[in-house]
Structures are given as C-alpha cells and as structure tokens.
Design a protein that fits this description.
CATH superfamily of the largest domain in chain A: Zn peptidases
Number of helices of chain A: 13
Strand content of chain A: 15-25%
Number of strands of chain A: 18
Distance between the termini of chain A: 26 Å
CATH class of the largest domain in chain A: Alpha Beta
Number of domains of chain A: 2
CATH topology of the largest domain in chain A: Aminopeptidase
Oligomer: homodimer
CATH architecture of the largest domain in chain A: 3-Layer(aba) Sandwich
Helix content of chain A: 25-40%
Chain lengths: 441, 441
C-alpha cells in the first residue's frame, strides 16, 4: 500500500468515533469532517447533515456522464473499545503486525469504507486518463450505524431525491472463508432495549434481610432464564409468528457459504454450537442478552441483596418480523414473568430495522458475480448474513436502488471484540472491488 | 455528647478501613494504630498482631482486682462504600443531620465499637473514683470482619491463653424495634464464593454469531435460576441436610422480637416478603446472589455475545450446616447445571463460619436481662439474628467465654447500604450498656 494511503487510513482510525457514547460526539464530528475533506479531493460535492445532536450524515455527489447512478453507503462510527484491559495494543492507536492493522474500526467499518473509497479514487483516476463516461456516484456515509442509525433513518424520507440511484454498494460485511468473494443476499434485522428490574428500595444487608427480601440479581437471572428453553429455542409468545421460511435453493446456497461446524468451534473456542449453522445464522431470529449488571462485582465479597439489576437485550430479526412487534412481544413476556415483589421497566429502546432477503437471480447480482469471478477464479458465493445494517433496508426503499453488499471481512478480524484488525490483503480486495464494479456499471 | 468524644468518633470514621479492598490496607493499619493509642490512654497494654498482609488484630488487656475476666470483641473494618453515586454526603466524611451521624461505618461497627469503648472508659473513670474492684478486661479488635475474619480465625488457636475469659461482650448487632434492648441468642453463619462462567473465547458480534454461539450472560442467568424454585425454596441437593430445627419456645420468642410484615414491607419498599419472617431470618439458611456482571452495561447498546460472566454468591447458615459442606453442595450444583458449551470455575472462596444458638436460660443471659431492664423498663427481648459474625463462633470456642451479644442498631441505620448512619441516642445506649454491664459482672 502506498505510504500516502496508509497515513490517511491511520489518521481516520485514530479518531475515536464511538457513536453510542454521547461524550464522543466531537470525535464523531471530526471524523465526518475528515471524510468530507477526503472525498472533496476526489471531486465530490459534499454536505454534512445533522439532526438531534447526532453525528453528521455525509451526503455527497459526483455527477457523471454515464446515465447510471451508483449510491455508496458506509459508516464511520465504531463500537466502544471496552473491555480495555483485553487489548494488546491501544484501541485507537493503529498498529501493524504480520500484515494486519490492529485498531478499533480497522475493519468495521472505517477500514472497509476507506479501502472502498480509495478504490473509488483509483477508478476516477483511471477513468479521467481513459476519458470513459463515469456513472454518477453518490455517497451516504453516516456515524450511527453501531447505534441503529436513528438520525439517518429519521431523515431518510427527506432524502429520496438526493439518494435516488440504480445500485447501492455497501462494503460492510464479510467474505466467505479464505477470502472467497461473497454477495450478501440477505441481512437479519436488529432492535434492542434495556430492561431494569427493581426489587427493594436500597441494597440490603444479606444477613439482616436474606431469606425474606426479593433479590434483584437473582430476579433478573430468573427472568432472563424464561426467554429460551433448555435447547435454546425462543419461548416468547408471538415472537416467531409470521416468519418467512427460506426456499430449498436458499438453504442449499447458504450451506455452501457457511463455515463448517469444526471451523466454527475452533474459531470461538467452544465445543457446542447450534445445529444447522447456516439456517440458524441466516434465516432464524435471536434474542440475545448483551449484558447483565447488578450488585457487587469487585474483589472479595460484599454481602448485599442488590436493589436493582439491568440487562441489555437485542434481537436479530428475519423477514416477516417487524421490530416494533418483536420488541413488544419480548417486553410483554418480561412483564408477565416479572418476579414477585419486583418492578420491571424499559428505560432505553431502539427499533432498528427488519431483515430482508434479495432475489438471487437479479441482473445486478449476475453482473457482480461476473466481476467477482474476474477477481477470483473460485467465483462468488451467496451469503445470508446473520448481522444487520438496519439502515440498508431503509435506504433500499428510499433510493429505489438494488443493494449490492459485498465486503471483505474475515472471522479473524474480531470486529466488535478487543484487538479488532484488518489485513492488507483484505484492504486490497475491497479497493479493487470498488474500482472494478464501477468500471462495469 | 462531649465535643472531645465526638471529635474522636469523627477521627475514627474518616479512616477508610475497607478490608475487602487490598489497596486500603494502609488505612486499615492506620485505624488499628488509632485504636491502639485510644485504649492505651485507658490503661490497656496493647499488641498489634498481623498475619499474611492482613489488617492488624488488636489484642489488649487491663488487669483487674476482681477475679472475673471480660473479653470485648469488635471490628474496625467497614463495607465498601459503592455505589458511590447514591451517597448524599461523602461516604467517609462524617456529617451530622437530625441527631444522626452519616458515614460509612457510623454504625457497623466503628460506631458501635467506639461507643462501647467510650462506655468502658466511663466505667474505668467511675471505678477509679469509687475504688471498687474491676474485672480484668481484654480486647480483641480486628479489621477483617466484613471479609470473614480470615487472619483472626487463623491465629485464634494460638490466642487461647491471651483471650481466655468468662464472658465475651460483642456490640455489633441491632436492638429490637423502637430501640428496645435485645440479647442475641443466635447468629447465622456465612460463607461465600465467586463463580465464573466462560462460554466463547472472546466477546462475539451478536449478528455474526447470534443463534449459534453460547452466551455467558444468558448462561449465568439460566444457571443461577436453578438455585431456587418459584417460591424461593432452595433446590440444591444436600444443602438443607442436618439442619437443627428451633424449639417452640425459640420460635415464640423470635416472633416477639421480629418486626411486623407491614413494618418490614415499608422499610424495604416492596409488597412481597417471605412468610414466617422470624423463622426465615433466624432459623433458615439462604443462598443469595450478591452480584452478577457480564458484558455491556453502559448507555446505548453494544450487540455482543459476552464471553464471560461472574456472580458473587453468599450463604447464611444455621446450626447443623458446615460452611465447607454448604459451599461444596452449591458448587457441585452449579457444575452439574453448567450450560452446554460453557465452563464453570470458582476463583475465590471464603469458608467463614457456621451459625450457633445459645441456651436462653443461662446465668449470663439472666444477668444481662436485669441490667437491660434497669436501662429500659420494657426489658430485653431475645433475637435470633439473621446476620453473621463468623469470628464469634471461633472466639467462643477459643476463649471459653459465654457470648453476650447486645447491640443498638436500628433498620434505619442502613448498614452495608449507601448513607449509613447512627443516631446519638443509639450511641448513648451502647455507651451506657458497656458501663452498666461492667459494673455488674
């Protein structure tokens, strides 16, 4: 990679654009400003749109001579870095080791986005030399994807005209094993909320009150234990209603692109994973507990009966489920199963977006498959990704574009975890993909 | 209260003697030094005994002319102050309001201990004026009671001679409602351990892995939910074996001294408390979860599958249960119920001590009842306290003394909770009790 590109990449990574932390709004804004300057150099006309003290949304356009219009979506915000003590190098200090860059956001999505934009630059450089007609290119880069994109989703209806396009390119997903190209044919939706369980009016002495007072730590445990049965099946009434089952062809293709159980077990270090990996990840919803906190957690002991417990709950959704209904079902379930003497509340919530699946024989997918075959003789696989880019469903509707979601992540990147990284080979693929697909639109 | 006494009390409270926090060892040692100077002024010969980097144990003696020997036990360590944000005044800055002193340790046990020692001083002053023969008074004041007294329990067998006494006075418990005097006829034992549950090898992205990877936050919830049935009854095999049932007379007396359900509900702010309060608190064991921590707990969301969860577990024990066996039963239960794909470990443990009950018609109890009747025409009630002073069982055996446990706490003191306090009236009672019982031994 050229030194100039590497320096720019590192500048971008050092900005601590954690969208879920309100105290990092300044860093998020700086990141948007940085991107604005970067794409202005490539000839884009740029506006930063803000709403409700959210990180700015960058909307940009570069008019082309070719009648086609391409929309590029990406996000510049990153996950929080904690647990900090598990990072081997500082989380916002990019560090190169064995052909990889270690940093929060090295991949998701600052790294993939920056590689893709670098490829857009490569295309424009060549195109100007060759004098070929370029398509109109639009950019929509936001800073709240990791928090469910509330501001962009809110402003989206007003952006119909400015975002109207034929194809929407998204580089925020993983390739298949061994970096085999992958086209995402479906994404799960996501929504989340916080549950707060309150028992007594203060933390109590476990001797003076133990055996008679309700315990919020034990209460949250008993409450969350009701969400699934022993086999992990969801037990929430109404939650699974209306789910659209995948076709036999979708299941066959999804199985092809899903790592083996053996690889999966090795990757995550456990001997137990679900049956039917591809189906569980691509076509079935989840209710996950992302955190539980209650009472004492330090060294030694503190013999209290905790008064309060909180849990962070998120759901991955599949076509046929609406986020609103899914949240309501789980909340109702928790209210109905609230332990005696306690009170359940929901102080935070984000509706996110539903999941979607795309027809696998569309013209856009056929074109992408050809381009990817040129890049890699193995050709592309289709993936139904278990993850979510809630805003993609929204932008799909608003822009009228066909989503073309091709990313170059790998499991070893450890996105959302400590020691996130992105390999130079992957960076090169994302960059090449951007250039090639623009050459063929 | 005399200014001199109040100043001394505040000096003692300001020392942050949190024994469970190894970084506070210096403050604990300073507190022991402070007490050493304080009791030397009263004519005691003092030694500070240390073991294994634990806060020092203060052993002191003041020889008397009377053949009786009285041992006074107390502790100068306090509970951690967290959650800090719930304190209305700084936790280690004693603050007087409406006849009460607010501070961590204002009551438990620096406040009660200091009031008692002030009463010992009052007795010695009067006795020297009147020329009456005083008993030999021994002190055993330690700094690890809130952590299960490991150092003192370890050194106790070597202290048989130095602690030998006829009566052991302990001022570390509560009076009955409306400050009616109370003699503790039984204490529950206590022991605790930490459980750590590990699922995968790192926090995972809940989209990329949700539905197939085991979730430690959900796992700890499901695991802890197996400890009790829906009604709160303990479901751990072997845990309840061998428990000594109380006599009808003990139950009758315990009911007399236990607050009403109505008072209890008001005190702790919940509409649900156990049936048979007196029995549940005095004669039945518990398994409590003092804390659960796993995954994300901040603002917004972080859609991870947590790799690790910890829970702090403590048990209150009754006669017939050994701490070793109780811990082993619960650990075995947790191992047997460990969710698939996860690993359960126990990184910390403290055996503490078992519970005990004393015969209610002993000569010492009859004497105490007379003295307390002089102090309060309502006379004393007997209490079977749900709390624990593990070291008392050990000192009872080592010293050969009959425990006489009379304290002046009240529910409003909120010991172990934020905004702990102690009333001047209560302080005066503890002080008067010390003087009067010494006059009558």
């Amino acid at each position: 990679m050229e030194t100039k590109v590497l320096n720019r990449y590192f500048e971008l990574l050092k900005l601590e654009s954690v969208s879920s932390d309100p105290s990092k709004l300044k860093e998020c804004t700086q990141t948007a400003m940085w991107l604005k300057a970067f794409v202005e150099e490539m000839g884009f006309t740029v506006a930063l749109e803000t709403r409700d003290f959210a990180p700015p949304v960058l909307i940009a356009e570069r008019k082309g001579e070719n009648p086609a219009t391409v929309l590029v979506y990406g996000h510049y915000d990153v996950q929080p870095a904690d647990p900090l003590e598990e990072w081997k190098t500082p989380p916002f200090e990019p560090t190169v080791k064995d052909g990889r860059v270690y940093c929060r956001g090295a991949q998701d999505d600052k790294g993939q986005l920056f590689a893709f934009l670098t490829g857009v630059g490569d295309y424009l450089d060549r195109q100007s030399v060759k004098g070929l007609p370029a398509p109109t290119i639009k950019l929509c880069l936001e800073g709240q994807e990791e928090s469910g994109s509330p501001a962009l989703i809110k402003m989206a209806p007003d952006l119909r005209k400015r975002l109207a396009a034929d194809v929407m390119l998204v580089c925020d997903t993983a390739a298949a094993a061994d970096l085999r190209p992958s086209i995402v044919a479906g994404l799960r939706g996501v929504c989340h909320f916080t549950v707060k369980l309150t028992g007594v009016n203060r933390d109590l002495h476990s001797g003076e009150y133990g055996g008679v007072a309700p315990n919020a730590a034990l209460g949250i445990a008993r409450l969350l234990a009701t969400l699934h049965d022993e086999k992990g099946n969801i037990r929430v009434a109404g939650f699974m209603d209306g789910i659209e089952a995948p076709s036999a062809e979708e299941i066959r293709l999804a199985n092809e692109s899903t790592p083996s159980k053996e690889d999966f077990r090795k990757d995550i270090g456990t001997d137990t994973v679900a049956e039917n990996l591809a189906e569980a990840l691509g076509f079935r919803p989840t209710i996950e507990v992302n955190g539980i906190h209650s009472g004492y957690g330090g060294a030694g002991s503190k013999t209290v009966i905790p008064a309060v417990a909180i849990a962070k709950i998120s759901m991955r959704l599949v076509p046929g489920q609406s986020p609103r209904r899914a949240i309501d079902c789980v909340k109702r379930h928790l209210e109905e199963h609230c332990p005696a003497g306690m009170k359940v509340e929901f102080p935070e919530e984000a509706e996110g977006a539903g999941g979607f699946r795309l027809p696998i024989d569309s013209p856009v997918f056929r074109l992408a498959a050809e381009v990817l075959k040129e890049m890699d003789p193995r050709g592309a696989v289709f993936q139904w990704d278990g993850a979510s880019i809630p805003v993609v469903s929204v932008l799909k509707e608003v822009s009228g574009a066909s989503p073309l979601i091709v990313g170059w992540g790998q499991a070893e990147d450890r996105i959302h975890s400590p020691n996130e990284s992105y390999g130079f080979t992957q960076f090169g693929k994302a960059r090449e993909w951007a250039r090639r697909i623009l050459e063929n639109v």
